[in-house]
Write a structure and sequence with these properties.
Layout lengths: L6 H10 L7 H21 L12 H39 L6 H42 L5 H29 L5 H30 L5
Length: about 220
């Protein structure tokens, strides 16, 4: 299967260009989508396959719910690529607004604040949903087909990378806002990164133990 002429190639070319869109936010969304896709693959190669009957009813239900969530997020995360680009483009437009009169300056200030807020909240939302995905990757690591356990690990690392990337995009816009009323967004973002790190470590310990016979940490 070749990907030379499809949208992946086009996206990477745009990412490498001098255009600011897509940028790090779009790349983070793509990482989340790749993570969701890999996690879905693990479940699709688990459900109904050899050894699946060894799971009890509750474990099978958890696997099936995790597949449903991962499949849904695969679609949602792709939309975040455009959402991030749109938020950034709108912000850049606000910086180009005229500032000749006091009224124009105030309007420009208001539009910049709104633009920064939106540019902060898009990656914040992506971060929250990606951390939730990681809980389902943990299910894949625990109950997934052992032949594709490494894919669960790759999925976890992609998701964690996306979360850390989102944190950077949240914080650069939060700092530019200079408004303490959004302090809770900063606090919650920090908590999400810690949660993601703990989930990543738990998943990778399971993956390493199943492949190598010992835990990573």
């Amino acid at each position: 299967m070749g990907f030379e002429k499809d949208q992946i190639s086009d996206f990477l070319a745009k990412l490498a260009s001098s255009s600011a869109v897509p940028g790090g936010g779009g790349a983070a969304a793509l990482a989340s989508a790749l993570s969701a896709a890999l996690n879905s693959m693990v479940f699709n190669l688990t459900i109904g396959k050899k050894g699946y009957d060894n799971l009890n009813k509750e474990e099978q239900e958890n696997v099936e719910k995790a597949l449903e969530y991962s499949t849904l997020k695969l679609q949602d995360f792709q939309k975040f690529i455009n959402k991030d680009g749109e938020a950034f483009s709108t912000l850049m437009e606000s910086y180009r607004l005229p500032k000749n009169s006091d009224e124009e300056k105030e309007h420009r200030r208001k539009m910049i604040s709104e633009g920064l807020y939106n540019a902060m909240m898009v990656p914040y939302s992506l971060m929250k949903e990606t951390v939730e995905l990681m809980e389902h990757i943990l299910t894949a690591a625990k109950f997934g087909n052992s032949n594709v356990i490494s894919d669960a690990g790759v999925s976890a690392m992609l998701a964690y990378s996306a979360v850390e990337s989102c944190m950077l995009n949240v914080m650069i816009n939060y700092k530019a806002l200079k408004d303490e009323k959004y302090k809770e967004v900063e606090n919650e973002s920090i908590a999400l990164v810690f949660k993601a790190e703990n989930l990543k470590n738990e998943i990778m310990n399971i993956v390493y133990e199943k492949i190598m016979g010992y835990k990573k940490n």
